[in-house]
Structures are given as C-alpha cells and as structure tokens.
Amino acid sequence: SSSSSSSDQPWMLLVSGLGGGSEDSYVQSMCVEAAKRNWRVAVLNMRGCGNSPVISPRFFSAMRGSLEDVRETVRYMREELAGPRAPIAALGWSNGATIVNNYAAQQGAFDAKERVDLAATMCCPFDMPMADRGFRKPFSRMVYDRALTRKLVSKIKENIEVFEELPVVSLEGKRVELDLERLLGARTIREIDAELTCKTFDYPTVDAYYADSSCNQRLKDVEIPLLMVSAIDDPLIPDSCIPYEEARRNDNLMLVTTRHGGHLGWVDEAASARGDGRRWCSDWIERTVLNHLDAALHLA
User: Fold this and answer.
1) Which residue in the list 230, 263, 282, 292 is annotated as catalytic?
2) Which residues contact 161 (CB under 8 A, 6 or more apart)?
3) When comparing pLDDT for 51 and 92, which is higher?
4) 95-106 vs 66-76: helix axis angle to the nearest 10?
5) Is the pLDDT of residue 4 over 50?
6) What's a Pfam family in this record (predicted)?
C-alpha cells in the first residue's frame, strides 16, 4: 500500500487461516473487494507464512506470541500507514479468526495505538478442545488434518536450521529441547502442537494450550463491533462450538450462521463463473463482511 492515503481512510488488517498468508485466494479476494470500497488493506503473514523466513525458533499459536505480533502490526499501521484518526478493522479466518477474536476481547488493556476499531471473523473454532475432537473425526482427519500437517511440516523443513540449534528459547525465555525427528515426522496438527507450539509458547500440555486459546470464554469482554460468521455444516467446527449465548449477551457481537458453507467454503454461482482467477471465492461472504464493516463505520 502507498503512503498517500487520506488520514481518515479506513484500513483493514487481514489474518489468514492456519499456515496461510497473503497468497491465499480468499485473502486476495477480500483485498480486491475491500479496495473497491475505498479500504486500504494490509495482510499479516504469521511467522513462517506467506514466504516469510523464520528467524527465531517459534512459529505462531492461536494466542501467545500471535497477539503480540498483532499488537506490533497495529501500532506500526497507526504510526506509519494509517494515522491516528483512521479506523482499523481486523479480519480473521479459521485460526486467524481465533487470534482476532482473542485480540478484540483483550485489547482494552493495550495502548490506544494498538487497538482496532472493529472486527470480523469467519469459521472460528471458538471452543478449541471441542474443535480438536471434530478435527480428529475420520473425514476431517483424512482431508484437513493431513493436508495442514504436511503444510506446516514443510514450513518447518524450510526453516530447519533455526530449530537445529538446541536447546531453543521459549517465549518466556526458558531453554527447551525439541525432538526434531518427532516434529518432522508429525502426522497430525496435534502432534505438531505437542512438540513445537506447547514447548516454544510455554504450555504444559496440548489440552492446556487449546483451553487457553479458546476465544468463547473471552467474548463477553469485546467492546468493539465484531461480526462472526460460521457455517452449520463446517466439518471442523461443530455447531455446539458456536457461541449463541455469548452473542445474545453482548450487544457488540453479531453472529451470523449459514446452513451451508463448510470450512471457508462459501462459493456462489456468480463467483464460480467469474473467470478472474478467484473462482473459488464467494462474493457473498465478501459482501456480507464489507457491508457490515461499512455500516459499523457509518454508525460510529
């Protein structure tokens, strides 16, 4: 993005799903549609994602470390790109949705320059222990877990020299040993979380990590407009994960559920016939999110 934007022109910070980044079609599609509506757009590639190198022996989590990275990004946007008066919206998909929801709930304790003004999330695994159980069902394990695990293991291999200097230093400064053979041989996301995420972000167990990262327990603390969109038939996130009661109790939350859509699979006929390289992206989800954000800005 250029530095010539108006001082009050709205900005958008996008956080993709697990292991994804600025190259993902749904991220690029949102960028295109947002730009048409006069939004300036930035994408946060989490560590090791979007072809970014890993320079410390940590990737990212759904909570610790990642929230600090978002804080630094928002502060940079305020100071270098957007200016103090420009609204900033945070958008997240899947694991990125968990990060954004957790951020929105906790940003009241942050410096004013580190706060976003509104947010939207899609296909968030609100209750991660419950989502983990769904992730381990046969279909999800064969289709999603296997593919995502291969993707993350590939990223680890690309940056293996960072992890070979054992012991590595965790987020809290502890020296920890990694079993690289086990890590590179991981067959599930849970195995990667056990060997890498928990050790480098100071969680005693995978279940403790998932419990801490679950954003449903913090939605009561959200004080900005937050749109959350989920599909009832999402194979990774059971309907029982969706925070209906939390949304009823907090007027800042708007929860939208669709009968179909799977996991980030909102595809419509118009999009599939578009022929512009974004045929698997849905105009519907982009319109829904952008209409909500535009309305929230208008009412602010």
Assistant:
1) 263
2) none
3) 92
4) 70
5) no
6) Abhydrolase_1
Q: Is 275 left (phi over 0), alpha (psi -120 to 50) or beta?
A: left
User: Average pLDDT of 228-246?
Assistant: 95
Domains of the chain: 11-129+214-299 (3.40.50.1820)
Catalytic choice (94, 140, 213, 214)? 94
pLDDT of residue 122 exceeding 90: yes
Phi, psi dihedral angles at 194 (to 5 degrees): -65, -40
230 is catalytic: no
Among candidate residues 213, 214, 234, 282, the one labeled active-site is: 234
pTM, to two decimals: 0.93
For 276, the token pair is 């512009």
Q: By C-alpha distance, which of 98, 79, 80, 77 is closest to 89? A: 77
Residue 234: active-site member? yes
Strand order in the sheet with 253-258: 40-44, 11-15, 88-93, 118-122, 226-231, 253-258
**Is 260 labeled as catalytic in the residue annotation?**
no
